[in-house]
Specification:
By secondary structure, the chain is of the alpha+beta class. Helix content is 27%, strand content 34%. The longest helix is centred in the N-terminal third of the chain and has 9 residues, at 3-11.
Amino acid sequence: MVGGTARWLRARDGWPRDLDLVVASQDVPGLATALTAVQVIIAPATLLTFRNVSLQTAWGPLDLFVAPPPPYAMQRLRGVPIRVEDRQ
C-alpha cells in the first residue's frame, strides 16, 4: 500500500482520496483473481501491459501500479497484516 492511505496508516495524517497499491509482476494474476471478490474485473494481461491502472470500485477509487514494491513496514489493520510503504 502506498500514497495517501499508507500515509494515513503510518501517521493518521489527512484523509486518503483513494487506495494506491503496488503489485509485483509475478503477483498480478493473484491480484486479478482477488479483485473479482469485490466485483472488479480486470485481466492480468491488461495490468501487465498498462502497468498503471485506475479502477472504480463500490468502495471508491483504486489505483494499481505494477512495479517492484517500495520499502515497507508491516502494519496490522483489524488483525490483517498489510505491507505499508515506509517513508521514514
